[in-house]
Amino acid sequence: MSVHLETAPLRPGEMLDRFTAGRSETGAIVSFTGLMRAEHGAADTLYLDAYPGFTEAEIARTEAEAQARFALQDSLIVHRHGAIAPGEPIVFVATAAAHRRAAFEAADHLMDYLKSRAPFWKRSSGPAGASWIEPTAQDLDDAARWDVVPWDVAPAAEDAG
Amino acid sequence: MSVHLETAPLRPGEMLDRFTAGRSETGAIVSFTGLMRAEHGAADTLYLDAYPGFTEAEIARTEAEAQARFALQDSLIVHRHGAIAPGEPIVFVATAAAHRRAAFEAADHLMDYLKSRAPFWKRSSGPAGASWIEPTAQDLDDAARWDVVPWDVAPAAEDAG
Amino acid sequence: MARVLLFGALADVAGWREREVEATAISSLRARLAADDATLGQALQRPGVQVALDKALTRGDAPLGPTTEVAFLPPMSGG
Amino acid sequence: MARVLLFGALADVAGWREREVEATAISSLRARLAADDATLGQALQRPGVQVALDKALTRGDAPLGPTTEVAFLPPMSGG
User: Fold this and answer.
1) Among A106, B65, D33, D63, which has the minimal tally of Cβ within 10 Å of its Cβ?
2) Are B117 and C76 an interchain contact pair (Cβ–Cβ within 8 Å)?
């Protein structure tokens, strides 16, 4: 389990390989890579403000909850901050579990949290100017999907992968 | 969109990087890597029989359905066959979409199909002998989750990534 | 001469995976395989075993050309 | 001397991100910041703005030590 903030471009393939190596009892690894969209020219820079120390600690609390809730074997969260260009990764999340359902649900859950509630402040800039962005109603709905499920639900038994 | 069968070990990081490169309107990339579990020594080889030509064509039909159903921008399915050792990847699936919900659901759906209905025949070998494996009840239940949803459901609108 | 392919447990039962067999229809091919190997003949009749001609699934009997590829597929297990 | 940090839109409003300010409590710090910059003073009072002392969220007033780090956090947007 770990959470990192980076200002340099992320390298998803390298992170996935390092996360995957040496696992003999893991059946399923899910990765999520969030990329900045150019919005067909409407966006040219995404600036993400973070509070180093505070931001990782807050994310790590949700990561720990997810690990317990989905019986994860491991997880990795790497988030870019600073100025990001179109096509560049913003966030990389990987989850490892014995079975695929847990790995999928945990990655999905972590992303819903990261996109709507994590301690970042984001500003999008483009030809029309710059503005600070709030989470969308859809982001808040996505995050709320996870609130209705009891926290101590056991993961369903399932085949390899 | 593409489907490949490989007999050599898969390289998930390299595949993820190649799949991710050069996308300016993709917000979300989900990858799934299925690994062979050692089952704490109970399994030492997984042998996957495939019917080259037929197997890819059958998988490609489901891939095309998933692309339409989830409005995917792209997908990649690479499946190992032959003899596989514990810790080695069996399958790699990647999906690309504008928004994360579609990328997650499509990868989840493709994996449910690949694990339960795709044209492979698998034999697990270990100290206790070798046996051909049928899909588990959980695999079939997982795959059936997708059957109850109408095929023409539109993906929900959602924020980047 | 049809080219016959067996997959999964069927290849284990037969002891071979690929063979040229003289037959002009699936029915006569099944009869010839069963005559050579009764255990295989029975295994091919089991529910869930599907037949593909030149990589397309088919049902019931069908004629075989001189280069038709006939595959007998046990229930698919997924990967 | 508290170390004051502003994030997101608050830093844009103030024109600075980090500054040493003489104050012994959050309330007196707010008063001093508002006296220097009324617009910032109002922005800090907006609903959803949270305060962290030494990287832990806090509510209401609290005393500040000579090296306390005080962060004003606008509503979090996610990444």
Assistant:
1) D63
2) yes
Nearest CA in chain C to B117: C78
Instruction: Tell me if chain A has a CB within 8 Å of the CB of B117.
Output: no
Among A38-42, B32-36, B79-83, the minimum mean pLDDT is found in A38-42
Contact of B60 with chain A, judged by CB distance below 8 Å, is answered with no
CA contacts within 13 A on the Cβ side of B84? 28
Q: Is residue A57 part of a domain?
A: yes
Residue-level pLDDT at D28: 96
Out of A80, A121, A133, name the one closest to residue D7 (CB). Answer: A121
Could you report the per-residue pLDDT of B14-23, keeping only the tens digit for each? Answer: 999 999 999 9
d(CA B143, CA A157): 15
Q: Is A133 on the interface with D (CB under 8 A)?
A: yes
Domain CATH number, residue A79: 3.90.1170.40
Structurally, chain D folds into a number of domains equal to: 1
CB A100 within 8 A of CB B37: no
CATH of the domain at C16: 3.10.20.30
Subunit partners of chain D (3 or more CB pairs within 8 A): A
Provide the domain limits for residue B44. 3-128
For residues C29 and C36, what is the distance between their CA atoms, to the nearest angstrom?
11
pLDDT value at residue A147: 66
Question: Residue B84: which residues within 8 A CB-CB, separation 6 or more?
Answer: B36, B45, B46, B47, B48, B90
Its domain, for residue C39, covers 2-73
Q: What is the pLDDT of residue B157?
A: 39
What is the interface pTM, i.e. ipTM, of the complex? 0.90
pTM for the whole structure: 0.89
